[in-house]
Amino acid sequence: MKKQKILLVTPPLTQLNTPYPATVYLKGFLNKQNIPSLQVDLGITLFLKVFSKSELNKLFEIAECNSHQFTDNTQRIIQLKAKYISTIDLVIAYLQKKDITAGYNICKKGFLPQASRFTSYHQMEWIFEPNNIHEKASFLATLYLEDMADFIQEAICPFFEFSKYGEKLVLSNPEFNLLEKNVENSNDPISKLTKNIFKTIIENYRPEFICFTIPFPGNMFSALICGKVIKDHHPDIKVIFGGGYVSTELRQLSDHRIFKYTDFIVLDRGESALLDILAGKTELTNTFYFKNNQLNFLNSKISEKYPYYQMGDPDFSDLNLNQYLSLTDSLNPMHRLWSDGQWNKISLAYGCYWARCSFCDTHLKYINCFEPTPVKHLIATIKNIIKQTCHTGFHFVDEAAPVELLRDLALQLLKENISITWWTNIRFEKGFTRDLCRLLAASGCIGVSGGIEVANDRLLKKIKKGVTIKQATQVLHHYKKSGIHVHAYLMYGFPTQTEQETIDALEIVRQLFKNNLIQSAYWHRFTLTVHSDIYHQPDKYQIQIPNMQPNLFANNDVPFVDLYGCQHENFSFGLKKALFNYMNGIGFDFNLQEWFDFKIPKPQIHSNQIKKLIKALHNKEEDQRQSSLVWIGSLPAATIKNHRKYKTYYFHDPDQAYQFQCQNDLDEWLCKNLNLFQFNKQPPQTIHEIDQKFKKEMGLSIKQISHKPIWKFLKAHGLLIL
Q1: Which of 175, 198, 467, 690 is deepest in the core (most CB within 10 A)?
Q2: Which residues constitute the domain of residue 257?
Q3: What angle do CA 129, 130, 134 make, to 5 degrees?
Q4: From CA 352, how far away is CA 653, in angstroms rounded?
Q5: Domain end marker among 250, 278, 310
Q6: Quick one: which of 330, 536, 359 has its CA closest to 451?
């Protein structure tokens, strides 16, 4: 194959704290095929240009011409123009961790100009400890930028947002008409700046192919603007669109006008299709194109399929990681992970191993086709990424990380002494035992996120979540005891959900927060999508779907009538208000009625239900049928006291020292033979193997010793059943 010059682009704006992983994975794949490529994150480039002294000055000059049309808040920002311009570079440098000492000035009263976003700070100022300068400074700097974003959105470009640039425009018009109109007339300062930046990039790199990853609706608008630049000025360059948004929403595309801005639209995993396009082949996989005045869709079975784990290691080499910013848009330690910290984003597997949730897009191949990555390969990838980025923080971005894969990965991280910090998405399934959660924490896990959804057993069964409130509580308790924070995805408005069930769900959520089982959460309003099981079986879920023809452009969200539910939209504000307070440790003892401006039913959930479930779990032993015993502590040292027959063993944890005085042969045998269970043994000793040793040497089984003091001591300090 002839080597092509390929440019991989993430269009504005996806995230500001770390690169979105699509292009780094694709570049890694192309590396393995010996095809050179370059990648750019246009989002961070645009952001840093907008939030600079020179550009802000231009934006303020534009706004000043029409300032009489704006809200009081925007007019205040315009009046404080000089202060914003003089502080912007310092704030950006601070959030990039290039000028940490600037935090002292940022915290100084009167240094930063303040507009409406600072209302939240003045309500919560008491939270900050006097010596916690950097926590406070990061929060204030983020509010400052959010004020500026509000100003830009009102005075300069109505579609501007940090992470959802143009999303409202895309969502509001699935027929493409309005989107096309705004792209063709994209003369606002932000769009012009995007075009100028992109023109410079093209001139510098001179690519033959440009591939855009479009993961979210908010990326489509700017991708089309860039596509227009290419077609207007470089029509010889071939343009390829791919990513999560196009794979989800453009599968029924019939409006060819989008091909004014692109040559190919590739669905799902696009590696095979990309190689075929580069090679000039006519037989393509999952690809739309427009030719001879006709929209075509090809899905050839000829193209080679590449196993996910053989795609090549992610390659960050073209990205300047020092450009990214750590924003603190929430003081909640778990909630803020999405925007704070430069996380290396990788996947442990392709697709979802569960793929049964009725509301999810399980009819899409990239959801229901599960391909785990071997642990050996994951470890190599992690090492390589750390070497490239010098960052040891990892966000495993899987739909739901499998229990067994996390266990094996954690053991291997410990075995190879790889110190990382990581978090991921999970399901609250029973496989996350107390001991497994301790293992995950020992390997560097600081947080997990997962769906509690409707927080109601009847509806969870209808969702096919495979989880009950009791089971979720058990898992959450294990994570709490292991020091791992939890973010919960919550849902309201599910078909047939009643007012009573909505309020009962809020009561469950209140108790989960009160007992510190979850640390953050987010309420999502249920949305019916065309790729869900509910859409394909409306009668089963007691909804009515209007007889509608597919949209010509995007197809995903579908209107429906809930035949037996309630007026769900009435609950939106109250649910979110309650959640905001709970995340800040406020209002646990308030009557739920306090959050709503209309009469709600009283909860039918006992006020201590979650506490009772926790109590029932207290001191419950792990399932002895599990396969292995693993010791993750350090091996003890022994001393002999003259007046005693048995030794005293000293254990040294990183933070504390412990001792155990052996009282009998069993105690000493276990302390002496902990090396048999060490995590670096390959494979770990099984329950059966240990039972055989016990019976041979001690005449006992594991079951017979599980109540002994020595067993409880070792379980407390690093002996795990996995």
Answers
A1: 198
A2: 6-46+164-310
A3: 80
A4: 37
A5: 310
A6: 359
